[in-house]
From TrEMBL:
GO molecular function, one term: dipeptidyl-peptidase activity
Xaa-Pro dipeptidyl-peptidase C-terminal domain mapped to chain residues: 392-652
Keywords noted in UniProt: Hydrolase
Organism: Dyadobacter koreensis
InterPro entries: AB_hydrolase_fold (IPR029058), CocE/Ser_esterase (IPR005674), Galactose-bd-like_sf (IPR008979), Xaa-Pro-like_dom (IPR000383), Xaa-Pro_dipept_C (IPR013736)
Protein name: Xaa-Pro dipeptidyl-peptidase C-terminal domain-containing protein
Amino acid sequence: MNSLSYLILKTTAFSFSGSDFHLIKKHNSLRLAFLLIFLFSATADLFAQRGKVNEDSLYIREHYNKIEKMIPMRDGVKLFTAIYIPKDISASKKYPILLNRTPYSSAPYGETMFKTVLGPSMNFARDGYIVVYQDVRGKYMSEGDFEAYRPFIREKKSKTDIDESSDTFDTIDWLIKNIQDNNGKVGSWGISAPGYYATMTAVDAHPALKVASPQAPVTDWYMGDDRHHNGAFFLMGTFAFISSYGAPRPVPTPKGTPAFSNYGTPDSYEFYKNLGPLKNVNEKIFKHENRIWNQLMEHEVYDEFWQSRTPVPHLKNIKPAVMVVGGWFDQEDLYGPLKTYQGIENNKPKSPNLLVMGPWIHGGWARGTGESLGNIRFGSKTSAFYQSEIELPYFNHFLKDKQDPKLPKAFIFETGSNEWKKYDQWPPKNSVEKKLYLHANGKLSFEPSGGNAATSFDEYTSDPAKPVPYTSEIRIIRGSDYMYEDQRFAATRPDVLVYESDVLKEDVAISGNVFADLFVSTTGTDADFVVKLIDVYPGDAPNDSPVNPSMKMGGFQLLIRGEVMRAKFRNSFSKPEAMTPNKVERVKFDMQDAAHRFKKGHKIMIQVQSSWFPLVDRNPQKFVNIYQATEADFQSAKHRIYTSGTSGSYVGVRVIE
């Protein structure tokens, strides 16, 4: 505690003995003291961050020159590229190149205008690198037409056969030949969409590319990144993002299109309910002028359009070393890093392929300290550790021939225990698949009900007119808080089923894939099923929230993993099938990976529901093309989750033994 915080506490925590009044006064004074301490600490942190930015900005200006070039591609299109070069570069002091290709702008533009942070972290700028930022084809100051996740062309027959791999190859080739005194080695990195472009640098890579780091890489906009999860449309994040990202850009410009802002309310639940069916977005707002939104609306199923845009089938013969990075609480792209790593690993690469997963939201490893998220503490500065002990040493080894940091195959932060784990494969060898069975009366255990048990089920009514909210907060932009939010707000609803284990007598640590295997029936012909895996804190858990000292952590329901499945895709994401009313059907789906320790004294909980609004669009519960559905298509339906015998529903996890 700093001296001012101590002074605040000392001068406010007073009382006089022998009086309830003074006890109350002391209690209120203490609350005020903690509030003042929190506000002071937050303010101090803000000023410290600003000071660090100013310090970093000054360092960049003092140690780097900046040039801007229009680099020609093989088809004649030129891409805007900003290049930061160390001032002390020379024939006797050569530097490697770091490349970041982005659709989000290489700003600031102008050779006298400098970024305030350079590279994956300022560690790289201080260590000495040539750092390159490039606007991808069709974005901001680059020429050409933009295509979101342009399909890869394996057999290129002419100079007009271009993709992100060829644009990267041409860029690296130009940089190596035209930036004097580079050392001939290139590394690439990027977060989110730039993470996808980093993935594509490694596909048919230029020989000079020695290391690539796709970080939270967008990998499949249909199966699990950003726009859809298991066929269900992620409404509010997509609408807000695509309103800018998909807007027309007739000519190169340093300015992007502002995102939609005319919500008229701070409440997303109200806005999207009033907006109505998905088709109203074009009719009322976009007017069919947003090309990417139009593409989304035209491809409801996993067709050739989507299949051609994922890089996973092309992650073969990857020659550069790779380090894939992701966050367990990533609100946008948890799917991407896991599938990219596994896609490379499945093809047995000769070069190193590493996976790093930490307790971060989207891009959290590159900003902030990583000490906490919301009410949850992680016990250390995880982001700083990653930047200095994992990321920089890995790049330096391959680009500067520095000592091999001998990193593990999988460097995984286990939440719950708040420990970094080192594994020689992912999932770990010592993890085994176990099933958390849903039982009658809201029970949950690793033991099945038995094959001779009478058929049992739990039933609830799902009404699209009253969908389950995805958060307890009033907010208009999705944010990331829902990924680690207390789930008690949902557990009390009649349209949310809750299954809870007994108090754990020993720790249960999971590491690896989580999946749901449900046996369900519905009175409708389609439905969504949302499954949440939750850590329930004991009633006497300490009130140690880093953001709210008065937050009662006893009984806190921490979301570990939540996922949605659109039931009409239960057998095929390309060929949807209607549900037969009142027929028991199996709905099995991927919930992504997790690494978490449910500690002794805690409980494990599963929640099941059929809406998650407006995070996910409402399912009409009628077998229709939801992107063309009308208000009349939406109907209330009763859903059953079966919990016994051969139709016993469960959630699969991998338990460390």
